[in-house]
Specification:
- The chain is α+β, with helices and mostly antiparallel strands.
- 31% of the residues lie in helices and 24% in strands.
- The strands form 5 sheets. Strands 2-3-5-4 form a 4-stranded mixed β-sheet. Strands 10-11-9-12 form a 4-stranded antiparallel β-sheet.
- A hairpin with a 5-residue loop joins strand 2 and strand 3.
- Helix 2 packs parallel to helix 3 and helix 3 crosses helix 4.
């Protein structure tokens, strides 16, 4: 794990951390303030009190969202056991920021959250306080968590997961620690029962969302993609708890494993067409539960405009039409034709982006376009091209 100075903003660990998450090792936090003592205990950040009393200490954390999934289903792990898994499509810019003010000397249950309706983030804060205090050798204490973000709720972009991850990172920062991605994943699953792999870097991984572990690193990076984002169902939030339970048999698992092999091959060879076929097949299988009325229209538009395929949020309403930037015919013309066709058929377009953008990179493009209806927590608005 990476060591950094107190309050430093070194990049979050990349490939080695992914492997740590994959093997389930290195789940303990790492102190960010100098070498360990001879006994192996972490050195407490300067200004922190070993008695747990003193001035408030503020920590910050951030987490980027995603744009639904390229593949989701039930797969076999290394032991041949069935395991729910997914591969997300990273989206640069929109995300969640958490500021945690630790108040030494207050009881750990004295935690307040703003906005008050972020129950999963509140649970994550309590879990993170207990773990980080133990690791830093300090009494656990209460404080205030404040969350800000620009990711719509209910569209399947990981809005709850990014709140949770940003919270865990902010609490760790307030204790002068940086948690390994495997530790963040474990706390995230404990806080919300299932988590997207947004605590890892943007490398494509098959992630067991209910267990918080990597089933497979599929390659170093996704091939370059241009994605025309849109929302189905008029942008109405999807209640994932109301979806029917998916019944999976051996034939289904074999098909998901076949798609996994094809996606691995597409990433290794940079074959956008093959990747688009996998994403479309996964999206089509999900229609047994989601039943988006516009899905066939979406795939028809993708074919007519020369796209490689479509992807969706398997637990939401966001979707994307996937283009190969290197394909003949002019990317700008194809994207423009796609957006026009989506608008003509009443499918709201949102943001056009590429996989070349860093998930922690610059956020907003000028101009917003509503993807109605709004929710009480956050407006359903995404930056548009």
């Amino acid at each position: 794990m990476t060591r950094a100075t107190h309050r430093g903003r070194a990049p979050w660990p990349t490939h080695p951390a992914v492997l740590e998450a994959e093997t389930g090792t290195a789940t303990a936090p790492t102190a960010r303030t100098g070498p360990a003592t001879a006994s192996g205990s972490p050195v407490i950040a300067s200004g922190s009190s070993v008695t747990g009393t003193g001035s408030p200490v503020t920590g910050t954390g951030h987490a980027p969202c995603h744009h639904g999934e390229l593949l989701q289903g039930v797969f076999l792990d290394a032991d041949g056991r069935r395991c729910a898994g997914l591969v997300t499509l990273p989206l640069a810019g929109p995300g969640s920021r958490a500021d945690f003010v630790r108040r030494p000397g207050t009881p750990p249950e004295a935690l307040t959250v703003v906005p008050a309706d972020r129950g999963k983030a509140a649970r994550a804060a309590g879990l993170a306080v207990a773990e980080c205090a133990r690791e830093a050798g300090l009494p656990p204490s209460g404080g205030q968590l404040r969350l800000t973000g620009d990711v719509p709720v209910g569209l399947g972009m990981g809005s709850s997961t990014i709140d949770v991850i940003a919270t865990v990172r902010a609490v760790a920062d307030a204790y002068g620690l940086r948690l390994a991605p495997a530790a963040v994943a474990r706390l995230a699953v404990a806080a919300e029962r299932a988590s997207d792999p947004l605590m890892l870097d943007a490398r494509p991984v098959l992630f067991a969302q209910r267990e918080g572990r990597v089933l497979e690193v599929l390659g170093p990076a996704l091939p370059p993609l241009a994605v025309v984002g849109c929302v189905l169902g008029g942008g109405a939030p999807v209640d994932t708890l109301a979806l029917p339970v998916q019944k999976v048999n051996d034939t289904d698992v074999q098909e998901y494993e076949r798609l996994r092999v094809l996606l691995r091959r597409a990433i290794a060879s940079g074959d956008v067409r093959l990747l688009g076929r996998v994403a479309t097949a996964s999206a089509r299988r999900a229609q047994h539960m989601l039943r988006h009325p516009e899905f066939e229209t979406l795939t028809a538009i993708a074919r007519r405009t020369g796209a490689a395929g479509v992807q969706i949020a398997h637990s939401g309403a966001v979707a994307g039409v996937l283009f190969d930037p290197a394909a003949p015919g002019g990317l700008r013309r194809r994207v423009r034709a796609c957006r026009h066709a989506l608008d003509t058929h009443g499918i709201p377009t949102t943001r056009t982006f590429t996989t070349k953008e860093s998930p922690d990179g610059p956020a907003h493009r000028r101009g917003d376009r509503p993807a109605r209806p709004h929710t009480s927590r956050r407006p359903s608005r995404l930056p548009a091209l």
